[in-house]
Design goal:
By secondary structure, the protein is an alpha/beta fold. It has a single domain, classed as Rossmann fold. It has eleven helices and eight strands. Helix 4 packs across helix 6. It is globular and about 50 Å long.
Length: about 300
């Protein structure tokens, strides 16, 4: 990656980010400190324990508005990122709280199983179980089941795209909108952007190859529910918002996904951000491009949930 192409407001942070490798640093990275959290009085947070797809207990973090109506509310299933091998709902406490405040929705974030201990399809099936449970809990949480959206970033975006496919093909619970942000959806690593990005501190080609290897668990025939770019038919998926930085290894797979969605008749909005590397809005949250990026996808969710109401 040519660091001179990185926006100056993002470059200083990039220089300070510690390098990490996969799989060597996986377990250390899982113990990275959580971002500081500023709790809002407008959002109540608690954890539920539900049955995951394997019959095991699974945590789902729930974020609810403390004001407004208590029935007919929209819901948002948010799937955390981490290359299918890292992450926990509490890393996204700040973001999920923002979704609640902006969209007036109830947010549910599952602690799905991670690879390599639990390769595909464990994590996806856990997310599907969470979606089913969300719909089954609609009365309890005052949810309007015609306004249930799903979203996630990076691997969470990949699981979002896969979950939309799975729900469509199983005739499962309805999804009114999907928001797979800079999604990890192509295991092949053959597109130009997957070759461009090499940097020890950001998600790059080496880490991506390692993470896919762990997630697929040695599978020879890769399912489109694992790598959604492999799906032959994208028709019938929900309206979509997505975005990606121009210096993200997922740039070209995101662009291909957007193009094919549009060709399949799916309404899609797409933003490409020059000078942005993978996940820049989280590591440099005060940068102008980060504030703008986050605001644009938060408002896209709010518009979608209002439009469906």
């Amino acid at each position: 990656m040519d660091v001179n192409r990185v926006l100056p407001e993002l470059r200083d942070v990039l220089d300070r980010l510690p390098p990490f490798r996969l799989p060597e640093d996986l377990y250390e990275a899982r113990n990275n400190p959580r971002p500081p959290f500023q709790k809002s009085d407008r959002v109540a947070i608690h954890d539920e324990t539900i049955k995951g797809a394997g019959g095991q207990d699974m945590l789902v973090r729930v974020y609810e508005p403390t004001d407004g109506p208590v029935s007919g509310r929209p819901a948002f299933l948010w799937i955390h990122g981490g290359g299918y091998v890292l992450g926990h709902p509490d890393y996204d406490d700040n973001l999920c709280q923002t979704f609640v405040e902006a969209a007036g929705c109830v947010v549910f974030s599952p602690d799905y199983r991670l690879a390599p201990e639990h390769p595909f399809p464990a994590g996806l099936e856990d997310c599907y179980a969470a979606l089913v449970w969300l719909h089954e809990s609609a009365v309890r949480y005052g949810i309007d089941t015609t306004r249930v959206a799903i979203g996630g970033a990076s691997a969470g975006g990949g699981l979002t795209a896969a979950l939309s496919l799975l729900a469509r093909d199983r005739g499962g619970p309805s999804i009114c909108f999907q928001m797979p942000l800079y999604p990890m959806i192509d295991d092949r690593n053959v597109l130009p952007s997957s070759h461009e990005i090499h940097h020890p501190a950001v998600w790059d080609r080496a880490k991506n190859i390692a993470a896919w290897t762990m997630y697929l668990g040695g599978a020879k025939d890769v399912s489109p529910y694992a790598a959604p770019i492999r799906a032959e038919n994208l028709a019938g998926l929900p309206p979509t918002f997505t975005c990606v930085g121009q210096l993200d290894p997922f740039r070209d797979e995101t662009i291909e996904y957007v193009t094919r969605l549009a060709q399949a008749g799916v309404d899609v909005e797409f933003h490409l951000y020059p000078g942005g590397y993978h996940g820049y809005e989280h590591v440099a949250p005060d940068a102008e491009i980060s504030v703008r990026t986050k605001n644009e996808y938060v408002q896209a969710l709010a518009r979608a949930l209002r439009r469906e109401g």
